[in-house]
Amino acid sequence: MTKNSLTVFFVLLLLSLVIIFFSQNQMVLISQQFVGETLKPFESVFSRLENWLSFWQSALFSIKNIKESNRRLIIENLNLNNKLADLSQLEEENLLLKKKLNLSQKAISTCLASVIGRDFQNNRSFLIDKGANDGIATGMIVISEGEIIIGRIIETSYNTAKVQTILDTQSRLAAITATSKTSGLVRGLGSDVILDLISKDKNPQIGELIISSGTDGIWLRGYVIGKIKETNSQDSQVFNTANIELLAKPQDFDSVFVILNSQ
């Protein structure tokens, strides 16, 4: 055995003896116990700190998951709202087409059109998305659902048309009340409509329906206009008048029917 090998051997032997001695030494054992007791509070603190860090790590991970789930729910909700809006629009279009079918049973041909522009200042006219290309021509009558008269076509272009409402001061419409058979002339005042030229011996009742009479040769007979709201009689006037409550106000609808022809 070489000298270096002997040196290493004796060093290792010495270290082994020292370790054995100190591990069995009472003072060393007491010191180890003391150190263990001293470090116990710190172990408790470190244990709580570890639990606290673990808790907040889990909480932050849960918050991240909740935010991701909330984002997905928001996207799903938006998609659902879009589908509901499309469904509502389809239902409305189906309802209007059913009304058109009911009109076709009266031997008239109609064209369903959407309102694309309004005269918001006085509601005397509006634009629709149908024009000469769709068979629309000036003079055609425009009605709403419920077969209520709204106005007439006064201008056309290739894809659009302008409707003059019965509110317009140039609008005139021969009419008759449904119950008392009081005839007169429906005349637009700009913002209101009256039944003019009522005979003095006639007394239409409030709430009585007014329909087109067709005697002017312009408007079709039998379409509702409105109802009597108030009657006016003055001795100085040759005729009586009555204020009309419209059943279809020009600002209250988005689609109309244009009567293309009738029998």
Please state the average pLDDT score: 77
Helix/strand-derived category reads: alpha+beta
Strand content: 25-35%
What name is given to the CATH topology of the largest domain? Thrombin, subunit H
Q: In total, how many beta strands?
A: 12
Q: CATH homologous superfamily name of the largest domain?
A: Rod shape-determining protein MreC, domain 2
Overview of this protein structure:
It is a single chain. With 263 residues, this protein is α+β, with helices and mostly antiparallel strands. The chain folds into two domains: 1-105; 108-263, Thrombin, subunit H (Beta Barrel), CATH 2.40.10. It has helices spanning 3-24, 26-104; strands spanning 108-118, 125-128, 141-144, 148-156, 161-165, 172-177, 183-188, 193-198, 209-212, 224-232, 240-246, 255-262. Strands 1-2-5-4-3-12 form a six-stranded antiparallel β-barrel. It is rod-shaped. The relative contact order is 0.11. The model has no long low-confidence stretch (mean pLDDT 77).
List keywords for this structure.
263 residues, 2 domains, 6-stranded antiparallel β-barrel, 12 strands, 30% strand
What is the topology?
Blueprint: H1 3-24, H2 26-104, E1 108-118, E2 125-128, E3 141-144, E4 148-156, E5 161-165, E6 172-177, E7 183-188, E8 193-198, E9 209-212, E10 224-232, E11 240-246, E12 255-262
